[in-house]
Amino acid sequence: MMKLDGITAFVATVDQTSISAAARRLGLAKSVVSERLAELERALGATLLQRSTRRLTLTSAGEAFLPRAQRILREMEEAAAEIDARSGKLAGPLRISAPVGFGILHLGPAIARFLQEHPGIEMSLDLDDRFVDAATGGFDAVLRHGAIGDGRLIARRLATSRRLLVAAPSYLAEHGKPTSLTELEGHTAILYANRSGDWRFAAGSGWTVMRPRAALRVNNGIVMRDAVLAGLGLAMLPTFFLHQEIKTGALIEVDIGWPAEGAELFLTYPRDHGAASKIRAFGDSLRRSFGDPPYWEQP
Protein backbone atom coordinates (compact mmCIF):
# COMPACT_ATOMS: atom_id res chain seq x y z
CA MET A 1 0.00 0.00 0.00
CA MET A 2 1.28 3.47 -0.88
CA LYS A 3 2.12 5.76 2.01
CA LEU A 4 1.87 9.53 1.95
CA ASP A 5 5.41 9.98 3.24
CA GLY A 6 6.71 8.03 0.24
CA ILE A 7 4.80 10.27 -2.16
CA THR A 8 6.14 13.32 -0.32
CA ALA A 9 9.69 11.99 -0.62
CA PHE A 10 9.24 11.31 -4.33
CA VAL A 11 7.90 14.78 -5.18
CA ALA A 12 10.55 16.49 -3.03
CA THR A 13 13.31 14.47 -4.74
CA VAL A 14 12.06 15.45 -8.19
CA ASP A 15 11.74 19.10 -7.16
CA GLN A 16 15.21 19.21 -5.61
CA THR A 17 16.80 16.94 -8.27
CA SER A 18 18.64 14.89 -5.64
CA ILE A 19 17.91 12.72 -2.62
CA SER A 20 20.35 14.69 -0.45
CA ALA A 21 18.65 18.01 -1.23
CA ALA A 22 15.22 16.46 -0.69
CA ALA A 23 16.36 15.15 2.69
CA ARG A 24 17.52 18.62 3.71
CA ARG A 25 14.23 20.14 2.60
CA LEU A 26 12.20 17.54 4.51
CA GLY A 27 14.45 17.64 7.58
CA LEU A 28 15.21 13.91 7.33
CA ALA A 29 18.26 11.71 6.99
CA LYS A 30 19.21 10.79 3.42
CA SER A 31 18.82 7.11 4.25
CA VAL A 32 15.23 7.69 5.41
CA VAL A 33 14.28 9.41 2.15
CA SER A 34 15.95 6.64 0.13
CA GLU A 35 14.03 3.97 2.04
CA ARG A 36 10.73 5.78 1.57
CA LEU A 37 11.37 6.01 -2.17
CA ALA A 38 12.22 2.33 -2.34
CA GLU A 39 9.09 1.44 -0.36
CA LEU A 40 6.95 3.52 -2.73
CA GLU A 41 8.45 1.80 -5.76
CA ARG A 42 7.79 -1.62 -4.20
CA ALA A 43 4.19 -0.65 -3.52
CA LEU A 44 3.72 0.50 -7.12
CA GLY A 45 5.69 -2.37 -8.63
CA ALA A 46 7.62 0.06 -10.81
CA THR A 47 10.86 2.03 -10.82
CA LEU A 48 10.15 5.76 -10.65
CA LEU A 49 13.68 7.19 -10.58
CA GLN A 50 16.77 6.12 -12.44
CA ARG A 51 19.68 6.64 -10.06
CA SER A 52 23.24 7.33 -11.18
CA THR A 53 26.33 8.77 -9.53
CA ARG A 54 25.71 12.16 -11.15
CA ARG A 55 21.96 12.68 -11.23
CA LEU A 56 18.46 11.30 -10.92
CA THR A 57 16.16 11.01 -13.91
CA LEU A 58 12.50 10.07 -14.10
CA THR A 59 11.61 6.80 -15.75
CA SER A 60 8.53 6.60 -17.97
CA ALA A 61 6.60 5.29 -14.95
CA GLY A 62 7.91 8.18 -12.87
CA GLU A 63 6.83 10.71 -15.50
CA ALA A 64 3.34 9.21 -15.51
CA PHE A 65 3.10 9.10 -11.71
CA LEU A 66 4.52 12.57 -10.96
CA PRO A 67 1.46 14.73 -11.84
CA ARG A 68 -0.79 12.40 -9.84
CA ALA A 69 1.59 12.52 -6.88
CA GLN A 70 1.68 16.32 -7.04
CA ARG A 71 -2.11 16.43 -7.18
CA ILE A 72 -2.38 14.10 -4.15
CA LEU A 73 -0.13 16.37 -2.09
CA ARG A 74 -1.96 19.49 -3.26
CA GLU A 75 -5.31 17.99 -2.32
CA MET A 76 -3.94 17.02 1.09
CA GLU A 77 -2.82 20.63 1.61
CA GLU A 78 -6.21 21.90 0.53
CA ALA A 79 -8.03 19.43 2.79
CA ALA A 80 -5.96 20.64 5.73
CA ALA A 81 -6.77 24.23 4.73
CA GLU A 82 -10.49 23.42 4.66
CA ILE A 83 -10.28 22.05 8.19
CA ASP A 84 -8.41 25.18 9.28
CA ALA A 85 -11.08 27.32 7.63
CA ARG A 86 -13.86 25.55 9.55
CA SER A 87 -12.05 26.38 12.76
CA GLY A 88 -11.62 30.01 11.69
CA LYS A 89 -8.01 29.66 10.60
CA LEU A 90 -6.80 29.78 6.99
CA ALA A 91 -3.38 28.41 6.10
CA GLY A 92 -1.37 26.83 3.32
CA PRO A 93 -0.47 27.76 -0.26
CA LEU A 94 -2.56 30.00 -2.49
CA ARG A 95 -1.51 30.45 -6.13
CA ILE A 96 -2.95 33.52 -7.89
CA SER A 97 -2.57 34.85 -11.45
CA ALA A 98 -3.43 38.45 -12.37
CA PRO A 99 -2.91 40.92 -15.23
CA VAL A 100 0.39 42.78 -15.10
CA GLY A 101 -0.87 46.36 -15.19
CA PHE A 102 -3.65 45.91 -12.66
CA GLY A 103 -1.34 43.94 -10.38
CA ILE A 104 1.34 46.62 -10.38
CA LEU A 105 -1.11 49.46 -9.76
CA HIS A 106 -3.55 47.95 -7.29
CA LEU A 107 -2.66 44.52 -5.86
CA GLY A 108 0.37 45.31 -3.67
CA PRO A 109 -1.46 46.99 -0.76
CA ALA A 110 -4.51 44.73 -1.14
CA ILE A 111 -2.45 41.54 -0.90
CA ALA A 112 -0.46 42.90 2.04
CA ARG A 113 -3.72 43.52 3.88
CA PHE A 114 -4.97 40.00 3.12
CA LEU A 115 -1.77 38.32 4.33
CA GLN A 116 -1.81 40.40 7.50
CA GLU A 117 -5.35 39.14 8.11
CA HIS A 118 -4.31 35.52 7.40
CA PRO A 119 -0.61 35.07 8.27
CA GLY A 120 -0.81 31.29 7.80
CA ILE A 121 -1.35 31.61 4.05
CA GLU A 122 1.65 31.27 1.71
CA MET A 123 0.72 33.19 -1.44
CA SER A 124 2.41 33.14 -4.81
CA LEU A 125 1.37 35.78 -7.35
CA ASP A 126 2.10 35.47 -11.07
CA LEU A 127 1.51 38.59 -13.20
CA ASP A 128 0.75 37.75 -16.82
CA ASP A 129 -1.17 39.62 -19.51
CA ARG A 130 -1.75 36.48 -21.55
CA PHE A 131 -5.00 34.54 -21.19
CA VAL A 132 -4.65 32.17 -18.22
CA ASP A 133 -7.12 29.28 -17.98
CA ALA A 134 -8.30 29.19 -14.37
CA ALA A 135 -9.38 25.56 -14.79
CA THR A 136 -6.12 24.12 -16.13
CA GLY A 137 -3.43 26.77 -15.70
CA GLY A 138 -2.01 25.48 -12.41
CA PHE A 139 -3.38 28.37 -10.31
CA ASP A 140 -5.94 28.30 -7.51
CA ALA A 141 -7.63 31.43 -8.86
CA VAL A 142 -7.21 33.98 -11.64
CA LEU A 143 -8.04 37.70 -11.57
CA ARG A 144 -9.50 38.73 -14.89
CA HIS A 145 -11.24 41.83 -16.22
CA GLY A 146 -13.85 41.04 -18.83
CA ALA A 147 -16.48 38.41 -19.56
CA ILE A 148 -15.91 34.83 -18.35
CA GLY A 149 -18.43 32.63 -20.15
CA ASP A 150 -16.96 29.33 -18.91
CA GLY A 151 -19.26 26.82 -17.21
CA ARG A 152 -16.31 25.11 -15.49
CA LEU A 153 -15.61 28.20 -13.41
CA ILE A 154 -17.06 30.20 -10.56
CA ALA A 155 -16.63 33.93 -11.22
CA ARG A 156 -16.89 36.33 -8.28
CA ARG A 157 -17.32 39.97 -9.25
CA LEU A 158 -14.83 42.08 -7.28
CA ALA A 159 -15.29 45.55 -8.75
CA THR A 160 -16.53 47.49 -11.74
CA SER A 161 -14.81 50.06 -13.85
CA ARG A 162 -15.86 52.42 -16.60
CA ARG A 163 -13.88 52.44 -19.81
CA LEU A 164 -13.02 55.94 -20.96
CA LEU A 165 -11.89 57.21 -24.32
CA VAL A 166 -8.92 59.43 -23.47
CA ALA A 167 -6.22 61.52 -25.08
CA ALA A 168 -3.38 63.80 -23.99
CA PRO A 169 -3.92 67.56 -24.21
CA SER A 170 -1.01 67.73 -26.69
CA TYR A 171 -2.69 65.27 -29.05
CA LEU A 172 -6.02 67.11 -28.90
CA ALA A 173 -4.30 70.44 -29.49
CA GLU A 174 -2.71 69.08 -32.67
CA HIS A 175 -5.53 66.90 -34.02
CA GLY A 176 -8.69 68.37 -32.49
CA LYS A 177 -11.16 66.79 -30.09
CA PRO A 178 -13.71 64.50 -31.74
CA THR A 179 -17.29 64.94 -30.58
CA SER A 180 -19.01 62.25 -32.66
CA LEU A 181 -18.37 58.77 -34.01
CA THR A 182 -17.90 60.22 -37.50
CA GLU A 183 -15.19 62.60 -36.30
CA LEU A 184 -13.56 59.83 -34.27
CA GLU A 185 -12.99 57.72 -37.39
CA GLY A 186 -10.22 60.03 -38.56
CA HIS A 187 -8.12 59.64 -35.42
CA THR A 188 -5.28 57.30 -34.44
CA ALA A 189 -5.65 54.68 -31.69
CA ILE A 190 -3.59 52.82 -29.12
CA LEU A 191 -5.15 49.34 -28.94
CA TYR A 192 -4.96 46.44 -26.50
CA ALA A 193 -3.49 43.45 -28.35
CA ASN A 194 -5.04 40.64 -26.26
CA ARG A 195 -8.65 41.42 -27.11
CA SER A 196 -10.62 42.60 -30.10
CA GLY A 197 -9.41 45.96 -31.41
CA ASP A 198 -13.01 47.15 -31.69
CA TRP A 199 -14.24 50.09 -29.68
CA ARG A 200 -17.80 49.49 -28.48
CA PHE A 201 -20.18 52.28 -27.50
CA ALA A 202 -23.65 51.89 -25.97
CA ALA A 203 -26.19 53.37 -28.36
CA GLY A 204 -29.80 52.96 -27.20
CA SER A 205 -30.52 49.27 -26.65
CA GLY A 206 -27.56 48.02 -28.71
CA TRP A 207 -23.90 48.60 -29.43
CA THR A 208 -22.13 50.68 -32.03
CA VAL A 209 -18.75 49.26 -32.98
CA MET A 210 -15.78 51.14 -34.39
CA ARG A 211 -12.55 49.66 -35.71
CA PRO A 212 -9.95 52.45 -35.38
CA ARG A 213 -6.60 52.68 -37.15
CA ALA A 214 -3.85 51.64 -34.72
CA ALA A 215 -0.60 53.51 -34.17
CA LEU A 216 0.32 50.89 -31.57
CA ARG A 217 -0.98 47.53 -30.37
CA VAL A 218 0.33 46.31 -27.04
CA ASN A 219 -0.76 43.75 -24.45
CA ASN A 220 -0.27 45.95 -21.39
CA GLY A 221 -2.54 48.71 -20.10
CA ILE A 222 0.26 50.72 -18.44
CA VAL A 223 2.20 50.89 -21.71
CA MET A 224 -1.03 51.93 -23.47
CA ARG A 225 -1.54 54.71 -20.94
CA ASP A 226 2.04 55.91 -21.35
CA ALA A 227 1.65 55.96 -25.13
CA VAL A 228 -1.46 58.12 -24.78
CA LEU A 229 0.35 60.43 -22.35
CA ALA A 230 3.06 60.83 -25.00
CA GLY A 231 0.43 62.07 -27.48
CA LEU A 232 0.58 59.11 -29.86
CA GLY A 233 -3.19 58.71 -30.12
CA LEU A 234 -6.44 57.98 -28.31
CA ALA A 235 -7.09 54.89 -26.20
CA MET A 236 -10.04 53.28 -24.48
CA LEU A 237 -8.95 52.18 -21.02
CA PRO A 238 -10.57 51.19 -17.71
CA THR A 239 -10.51 53.90 -15.07
CA PHE A 240 -8.30 51.75 -12.83
CA PHE A 241 -5.45 52.54 -15.27
CA LEU A 242 -5.94 56.28 -15.49
CA HIS A 243 -8.02 57.71 -12.65
CA GLN A 244 -5.07 59.72 -11.32
CA GLU A 245 -4.20 61.11 -14.76
CA ILE A 246 -7.81 62.18 -15.28
CA LYS A 247 -7.82 63.97 -11.91
CA THR A 248 -4.60 65.85 -12.65
CA GLY A 249 -5.57 66.73 -16.22
CA ALA A 250 -2.68 64.78 -17.75
CA LEU A 251 -5.33 62.90 -19.75
CA ILE A 252 -8.63 64.26 -21.05
CA GLU A 253 -11.81 62.24 -21.42
CA VAL A 254 -13.14 62.39 -24.97
CA ASP A 255 -16.94 62.42 -25.05
CA ILE A 256 -18.52 61.49 -28.38
CA GLY A 257 -22.04 61.36 -26.94
CA TRP A 258 -22.20 57.63 -26.17
CA PRO A 259 -20.65 55.82 -23.18
CA ALA A 260 -18.06 53.16 -23.87
CA GLU A 261 -18.49 49.53 -22.88
CA GLY A 262 -17.69 49.05 -19.18
CA ALA A 263 -15.26 46.64 -17.54
CA GLU A 264 -15.66 44.29 -14.60
CA LEU A 265 -13.02 42.61 -12.47
CA PHE A 266 -13.61 38.96 -11.55
CA LEU A 267 -11.90 36.36 -9.39
CA THR A 268 -12.36 33.01 -11.15
CA TYR A 269 -11.68 29.47 -9.96
CA PRO A 270 -12.82 25.89 -10.74
CA ARG A 271 -16.18 24.84 -9.28
CA ASP A 272 -14.76 21.82 -7.45
CA HIS A 273 -11.65 23.54 -6.08
CA GLY A 274 -10.59 22.32 -2.64
CA ALA A 275 -9.18 25.70 -1.61
CA ALA A 276 -12.47 27.53 -2.15
CA SER A 277 -12.52 28.86 1.42
CA LYS A 278 -9.16 30.59 0.96
CA ILE A 279 -10.21 31.94 -2.43
CA ARG A 280 -13.46 33.32 -1.02
CA ALA A 281 -11.60 34.97 1.84
CA PHE A 282 -9.14 36.47 -0.65
CA GLY A 283 -12.00 37.81 -2.77
CA ASP A 284 -13.73 39.31 0.26
CA SER A 285 -10.51 41.01 1.31
CA LEU A 286 -9.95 42.45 -2.18
CA ARG A 287 -13.48 43.85 -2.26
CA ARG A 288 -12.89 45.60 1.06
CA SER A 289 -9.58 47.00 -0.18
CA PHE A 290 -11.03 48.27 -3.47
CA GLY A 291 -14.27 49.66 -1.94
CA ASP A 292 -17.79 49.85 -3.34
CA PRO A 293 -17.70 51.78 -5.57
CA PRO A 294 -13.96 51.12 -6.02
CA TYR A 295 -11.64 53.97 -5.24
CA TRP A 296 -10.71 54.42 -8.90
CA GLU A 297 -14.36 55.33 -9.61
CA GLN A 298 -14.75 57.81 -6.77
CA PRO A 299 -14.76 61.51 -7.67
Automatic annotation (TrEMBL):
What Gene3D superfamilies does the annotation carry? 3.40.190.290, Winged helix-like DNA-binding domain superfamily/Winged helix DNA-binding domain (1.10.10.10)
Kindly give the PROSITE patterns that the UniProt entry links to this protein: HTH_LYSR
Say which domain of life the source belongs to. Answer: Bacteria
List, for all copies, the residue spans of the domain called HTH lysR-type: 2-59
Sorted keywords for this record are: DNA-binding, Transcription, Transcription regulation
Alphabetical list of Pfam families matching this protein: HTH_1, LysR_substrate
Gene Ontology molecular-function annotations: DNA binding
- State the family it belongs to: Belongs to the LysR transcriptional regulatory family.
Q: This protein is called what? A: DNA-binding transcriptional LysR family regulator
Q: Which organism is it from?
A: Novosphingobium capsulatum
